[in-house]
């Protein structure tokens, strides 16, 4: 079955970014993906995403769904037919939506686990916490909007960070028992990111010493997108170690 292109509004996309050791990242990536390095560091993170009006592009806006979602990510690159391409590898996706969990990997790319979310947002503060139903992953983040990006060792300023993440709009995640990578691409004509200041950020994924030995994953920065219309384009699935991801 052909998977449809999806339309949505990104109501909130909070990116919590980590500097990660390149060797630690390599161990987590399927071929042909390799870490996309910035100043010698890998870039990992958590995407805490609230989507509104999610629907096939041909469906009316009023029929769209609203959901809280999370993705743990590692920035990657690979050799494509036209040179080096960039994107993200997503080892796990989770959602509060029963429908998203059922449809992910079926009606649209990306298998999702179920998670329970606790969210509190005001004009000056954002708190998102989640616990996955399988007990594997817990996340808690509190941040506030900021005028500029400060104290990041990955990015000199907000403009550099925004360019980096705009260039990594293709996401690939394991599916079918690890026998293929599902791909999807974020497309928008209204790309806009703002800086955030982190108060607290914890993730049992990045805090796991079996994945990341002490010092191999360090909090770096946070960014946010709000109220951005966006489409999601399915990409051809690829077999890890055998094929190269391609653009849709």
What would you say this structure looks like, in words?
The protein is globular and about 45 Å long. The protein has helices spanning 22-28, 98-103, 158-166, and strands at 6-20, 34-35, 42-56, 65-80, 83-95, 113-122, 125-132, 138-146, 170-175, 180-187, 194-203, 217-225, 228-238. The chain contains three helices and 13 strands; from the N terminus they run E-H-E-E-E-E-H-E-E-E-H-E-E-E-E-E. It starts with 5 loop residues before the first strand and ends in a 10-residue tail after the last strand. Strands 1, 2, 3, 4, 5, 6, 7, 8, 9, 10, 11, 12 and 13 form a 13-stranded mixed sheet that branches. It is 9% helix and 53% strand. The chain has 248 residues and is mainly beta. The protein has a single domain, classed as Acetoacetate decarboxylase-like (Beta Barrel), CATH 2.40.400.
Strand content: over 45%
- Count every helix, treating DSSP H or I runs of 4 or more residues as helices: 3
Mean pLDDT: 93
Q: How is the quaternary structure best described?
A: single chain
* Number of distinct beta strands: 13
Which CATH class is shown? Answer: Mainly Beta
CA-atom Rg in angstroms: 17 Å
CATH-scheme architecture: Beta Barrel
| Overall number of domains | 1
CATH-derived topology: Acetoacetate decarboxylase-like
The helical percent reads under 10%
Provide the succession of SSEs.
Answer: EHEEEEHEEEHEEEEE
Q: Show unreliable segments.
A: none
Spatial separation of the terminal alpha carbons: 16 Å
Shape: globular
Q: Summarize the biggest pleated sheet.
A: 13 strands, mixed
In CATH terms, the superfamily is Acetoacetate decarboxylase-like
Given the helix and strand composition, which structural class is it?
mainly beta
């Amino acid at each position: 079955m052909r998977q449809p292109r999806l339309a949505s509004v990104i109501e909130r996309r909070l990116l919590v970014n980590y500097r990660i050791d390149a060797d630690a990242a390599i161990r987590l990536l399927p071929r042909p993906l390799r870490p996309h390095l910035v100043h010698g560091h890998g870039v990992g993170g958590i995407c805490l995403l609230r989507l509104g009006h999610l629907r096939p592009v041909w469906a009316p806006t009023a029929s769209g769904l609203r959901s809280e979602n999370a993705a743990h990510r590692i920035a990657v690159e690979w050799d494509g037919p036209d040179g080096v391409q960039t994107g993200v590898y997503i080892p796990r996706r989770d959602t509060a939506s029963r429908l998203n969990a059922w449809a992910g990997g079926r009606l649209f790319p990306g298998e999702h686990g179920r998670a329970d979310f606790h969210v509190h947002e005001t004009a000056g503060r954002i708190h998102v916490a989640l616990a996955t139903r399988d007990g594997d992953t817990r996340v808690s983040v509190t941040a506030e909007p900021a005028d500029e990006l400060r104290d990041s060792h990955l990015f000199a300023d907000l403009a550099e960070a925004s360019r980096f993440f705009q260039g990594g709009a293709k996401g690939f995640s394991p599916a079918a028992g690890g026998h293929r990578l599902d791909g999807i691409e974020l497309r928008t004509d209204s790309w806009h990111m703002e800086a955030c200041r982190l108060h607290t950020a914890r993730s049992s994924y990045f805090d796991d010493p079996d994945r990341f030995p002490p010092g191999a994953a360090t909090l770096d920065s946070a960014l946010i997108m709000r109220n951005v219309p966006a489409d999601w384009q399915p990409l051809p699935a690829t077999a890890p170690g055998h094929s190269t991801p391609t653009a849709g």
